[in-house]
């Protein structure tokens, strides 16, 4: 990807560009040697003979599968991906995105996940929910592990073997989803350092997944940060493909500024098509950067001419916002890049066709029923805890929006997945009107519940405690960060046990904590100690560490309380 971490997109230096041009010429000879009998490029949807035994081919065709170098559905229909990438693991709260992408015409989405090596692991429950959202929105779902990005050059990257173990751990979630899901083993799983090392671990990961019984179509990304400018995937594609006993494997090339001429693009894609080896453009960008100006027009036109899939990077949330297709996840605010991908020549709106597995019926447009009226179960001078009866839906309710109502206008103040939420940051002795809406996997929202009026306590000021708290961010990455909290006892007697409270303002959510146990409801966090931090001696300090998810903004908490008394901030 050329986004959430700009440094992961490798430039092609002048010498490398000259070598690449020479390699393109040599490659025409190499392809003939590596792919003997390579056919002339077939028109989109053309079928050629599959030399494997008929029994093996029939067993493979349980869902999406490869035949004659083409990606087919279980019924044999040719399927050409037209979609986008979506950074789910860094923005898990953007549950409406898949519905928005579908509404703009996409038939596929590539979803960023984490196997836990570099970012917070997406749980089986979360992955099952993502698959459910794809199906509810009639999208084919490409699931990818992003932690492998730039292995061999980026010291933080994980291995393909680790990613393979993650997929095997999801076997029960993935089983039966072969019609809907493609497994992309690992994103850009090798940098520019010794990219020849890519082939062996790629083969091993493919073999490991098949030995474990996964039958899905497998997608394999190229080295050189996905752009294969040294031709390693191109030269070794047959070896990797033959390592899959099912033959259900597709290659993914990522096209950014390395691919800035029409010749480079057409040569690369035609080499695979001529060899009847399946390929798609798994990521691509159009806007120019300091490395060059990608030729997105040729990418999209050639993909359409050859009947190859493409998945644009990326829906929203890039730290390099020039590559946001939608600004702030708003489908009504497409960027110039987004308008090009969705509405331009050879774009998604012109060329996308929905997978036939969805039967040609209408998308899920049925909203959940309205939840029950919320009731206040705890009221303080600055917060209220609300609870309500659950909504129902024809598929599944995936979450709720708690809204504050002022003069008929609504603002979301909490977005829980359960039927309770604590709203914080309120003003003492003030009346507030709240209501709740339900959401389903397709992004449909229910009618608003009945409202409840809650008046906060008068308060009297929060007592000041004998404590001070220091908060700092240890490290950040797209969609997440690591934090540290130091709690100091400034009094003359020990504090034991204790409860620390604070609130996040930007939707951050703690995923793991050491030194204590965190309970979070919306932005409000309450921490109870571990056994070894249960006592804070007079003048002493205990330190808590945690990892958390975040969005584009990561404002530090401004107020902390210990056992209900406010602490100074250090």
Automatic annotation (TrEMBL):
Keyword vocabulary terms for this entry: Carbohydrate metabolism, Cellulose degradation, Glycosidase, Hydrolase, Polysaccharide degradation, Signal
- Gene3D superfamilies named among the record's database cross-references: 2.60.40.290, Glycosidases, Immunoglobulins
SUPFAM superfamilies reported for this sequence: (Trans)glycosidases, Carbohydrate-binding domain, Fibronectin type III
- The Fibronectin type-III domain, residue ranges: 370-459
Domain named CBM2 is located at 460-570
Known EC number: 3.2.1.4
Task: Extract the SMART domains matched here.
Answer: CBD_II (SM00637), FN3 (SM00060)
Q: Which reaction does it catalyse?
A: Endohydrolysis of (1->4)-beta-D-glucosidic linkages in cellulose, lichenin and cereal beta-D-glucans
Q: Which InterPro entries match?
A: CBD2, CBM2/CBM3_carb-bd_dom_sf, CBM2_carb-bd_dom_sf, FN3_dom, FN3_sf, GH, Glyco_hydro_5, Ig-like_fold
Q: What family, per the record?
A: Belongs to the glycosyl hydrolase 5 (cellulase A) family.
- Its name, as the record gives it, is Endoglucanase
Species assigned in the record: Streptomyces lienomycini
């Amino acid at each position: 990807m050329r986004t959430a971490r700009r440094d992961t997109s490798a430039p092609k230096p002048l010498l490398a560009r000259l070598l690449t041009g020479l390699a393109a010429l040599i490659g025409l000879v190499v392809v003939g040697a590596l792919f003997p009998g390579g056919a002339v490029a077939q028109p989109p949807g053309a079928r050629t003979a599959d030399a494997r035994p008929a029994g093996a081919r029939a067993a493979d065709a349980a869902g999406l599968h490869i035949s004659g170098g083409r990606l087919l559905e279980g019924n044999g229909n040719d399927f050409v991906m037209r979609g986008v990438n979506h950074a789910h693991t860094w923005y898990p709260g953007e549950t409406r995105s898949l519905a928005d992408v579908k509404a703009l015409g996409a038939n596929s989405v590539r979803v960023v996940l984490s196997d836990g090596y570099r970012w917070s692991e997406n749980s089986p429950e979360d992955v099952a929910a993502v698959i459910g959202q794809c199906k509810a929105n009639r999208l084919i779902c490409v699931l990818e592990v992003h932690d492998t990005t730039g292995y061999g050059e980026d010291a933080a990257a994980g291995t393909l073997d680790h990613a393979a173990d993650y997929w095997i751990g999801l076997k029960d979630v993935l089983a039966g989803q072969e019609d809907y899901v493609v497994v992309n083993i690992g994103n850009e799983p090798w940098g520019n350092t010794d990219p020849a090392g890519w082939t062996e671990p790629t083969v091993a990961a493919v073999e490991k997944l098949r030995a474990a019984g996964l039958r899905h179509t497998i997608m394999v990304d190229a080295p050189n940060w996905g752009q294969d400018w040294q031709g390693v995937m191109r030269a070794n594609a047959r070896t990797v493909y033959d390592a899959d006993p099912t033959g259900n494997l597709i290659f993914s090339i990522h096209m950014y500024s390395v691919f800035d001429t029409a010749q480079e693009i057409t040569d690369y894609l035609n080499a695979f098509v001529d060899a009847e080896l399946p390929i798609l453009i798994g990521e691509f960008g159009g806007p120019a950067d300091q490395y060059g100006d990608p030729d997105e027009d040729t990418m999209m036109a050639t993909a359409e001419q050859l009947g190859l899939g493409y998945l644009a990077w990326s829906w929203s949330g890039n730290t390099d916002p020039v590559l946001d297709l939608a600004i702030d996840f708003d489908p009504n605010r497409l960027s110039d890049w987004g308008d090009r991908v969705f509405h331009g020549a050879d774009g998604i709106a012109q060329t996308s066709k929905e997978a036939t597995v969805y039967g040609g019926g209408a998308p899920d447009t049925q909203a959940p029923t309205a939840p029950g009226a919320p009731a206040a179960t705890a009221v303080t001078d600055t917060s209220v805890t609300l609870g309500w009866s659950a909504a129902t839906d024809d598929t599944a309710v995936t979450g709720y929006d708690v809204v504050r109502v002022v003069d008929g206008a609504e603002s979301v103040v909490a977005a829980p997945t359960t039927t309770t939420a604590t709203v914080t940051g309120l003003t003492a002795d003030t009346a507030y009107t709240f209501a709740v809406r339900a959401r389903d996997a397709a992004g449909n929202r229910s009618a608003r519940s009945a409202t409840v009026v809650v008046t906060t306590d008068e308060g009297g000021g929060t007592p000041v405690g004998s404590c001070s708290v220091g908060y700092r961010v240890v490290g950040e990455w797209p969609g997440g960060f690591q934090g540290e909290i130091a709690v100091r006892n400034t009094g003359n007697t020990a504090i034991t046990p204790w409860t620390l409270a604070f609130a996040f303002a930007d939707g951050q959510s703690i995923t793991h904590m050491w030194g204590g146990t965190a309970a979070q409801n919306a932005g409000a966090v309450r921490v109870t100690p571990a056994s070894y931090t249960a006592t804070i001696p007079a003048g002493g300090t205990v330190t808590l560490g945690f990892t958390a998810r975040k969005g584009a903004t990561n404002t530090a908490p401004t107020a902390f309380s210990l056992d209900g008394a406010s602490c100074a901030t250090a």
